[in-house]
Each structure stands twice: as C-alpha cells, then as structure tokens.
Structure prediction request, 235 residues.
Amino acid sequence: MSELMKEKIVIFSGAGISAESGLRTFRDMNGLWNEYSVEDVASPAGWAANPSLVLRFYNERRKAVLEARPNAAHYAIAKLEERFNVVVVTQNIDDLHERGGSSTIIHVHGEILKARSSLDPALIYPLSTPDIELGDCCGKGSQLRPHVVWFGEQVLHMDEAEQHFATASKILTVGTSLSVYPAAGLVGFAKTSAEKYLVSPDSQEPPPGYRLLQGKATAVVPRVVTCWLEGRKPS
Ligand code: OAD
Prediction:
C-alpha cells in the first residue's frame, strides 16, 4: 500500500521520550533549566553576551546525545511504519528517533548534530566533529552556532507540522510538559475525531480531547504501538 493510502499517525515528542536514554529533560527535578539560565545559554542575547558559554553548553549536550542510544519507545514508534504513515514531530534536538528507525521526522526546535551560520540561517552544516569552537566559521566567514532554536527565535517547519496534526487520525504525544509555545499549540490542530493520547509519568493534565496514559515512555509507548498494529485502542 502506498504511504498516501495509509492511515496517518502523528507522534509528538519532547524531552521525556529521551529521558530513559540518559538525556536530561528541561523542567523535571534534575532538569537543565534548574541548573542553567535560559537567558544565558538559549537566547540571542546570551549568544551576543557570551558565545563561548553558549557553545560549551551545547557541546556538552551534543556529547551526551552522541553517547546516548535510542530506547524502546523510539524503536516502537519506528515499528508503526509497518502499517501506518507515521510522522514524528519532535521538540527534541537529539537524533534518537532517526537512530530508532523512524523515517519522517520534523525537528521544530532544530538539531544539535548540525551547525549553522550566525549570518545566514540557510547555511546549515552536518557536524563532522562533536564540538563547535569559537573561530569555526561558515562559508561566508561568520561564526558557526548550533542549529537549535533559542527563545525569541522562529520555530521551524510549523506550517508543515500543523498540516500533519490536522490530517492525522491518531496522535500520540509523549514526554512533553506542553509548556513551550508555539510548539505546544500544535496539539490543538488535531481533528476532533482523531484518537489522541498524552503519555506522561505524572498526573499531567492532558490537552482537551486527549486521554492521559500514565507511565514512562518505554513502558507505555510499546503497549500503544502493539494495540494500534493489532487494530485495537489502547486501554
Ligand atoms: P520538559 O522538560 O518541559 O518536559 C518533559 C516532560 O517529560 C515532563 O512532562 C515529564 O513529566 C516527562 N517525562 C519525564 N520522564 C519521562 C519518561 N521516562 N517518559 C515519559 N515522559 C517523561 O521538556 P519539553 O516539553 O520537551 O526548547 O520542553 C519543551 C522545550 O523546552 C524544549 O524543546 C526546549 C525547552 O526549553 C528549546 O530549547 C527551544
């Protein structure tokens, strides 16, 4: 069956899906934003004030990503492609969905394993070394920066992501506090008739029309995937 004929599933992931791969989330107890100031390391003003601090912060994140491995949730999501047209929309800058085997992934907050020109945002480079250093330049001679979205910057591929939410018949949101907009607002583009779930270990309030499946990603996501592959609704 061609991809277009298949039922569409959107997976919307956040930092929590990679937590069991050893990557830190942002707002949990051990979250990155409890240790670092967003303004210092993830904003254009922080970059202007202290680029070496920003580069060091993301070099550490990149090292952690390179050492991490996909977990059972990432792998299960890829398995859905046996039967469905699966689009992963992720707020994560890691590449664990790619390494878990998913083929269509939209990174709305960028990708840590790419660098981009601080002069021309269209100049994006896959990184061949783990670190970006001061003095590493783009083809036009300006400093390279991580290809990640900072607070106050434009989120990427939103039109495309909205379209996928609006045309999916099943949506699985997993591992996100849904506190950062505009990405968090994507859940509102879903059809009323779509089957919609939020996976969280906490008693997190799901968005309207979504049902909470409480538990960790590696326990809940494979269970949901098995149900969907067998044509059942997860209980
Ligand atoms: P948060 O840190 O805000 O939320 C992580 C969510 O994952 C929380 O709801 C946790 O309860 C949940 N969680 C933790 N462990 C989990 C597990 N094992 N299984 C399932 N869920 C788990 O992370 P995000 O929502 O991804 O943006 O944060 C959104 C954005 O804020 C990030 O993309 C980043 C950050 O600032 C930028 O840097 C632009």
In short: The mean pLDDT is 96. The pocket of 2'-O-acetyl adenosine-5-diphosphoribose is lined by residues 14-16, 19-20, 25-28, 31, 42, 91, 109, 149, 174-177, 179-180, 199-202, 204, 216-217 (CB under 6 Å). Strands lie at 8-13, 85-90, 105-107, 110-117, 124-126, 144-148, 170-174, 195-200, 211-214.
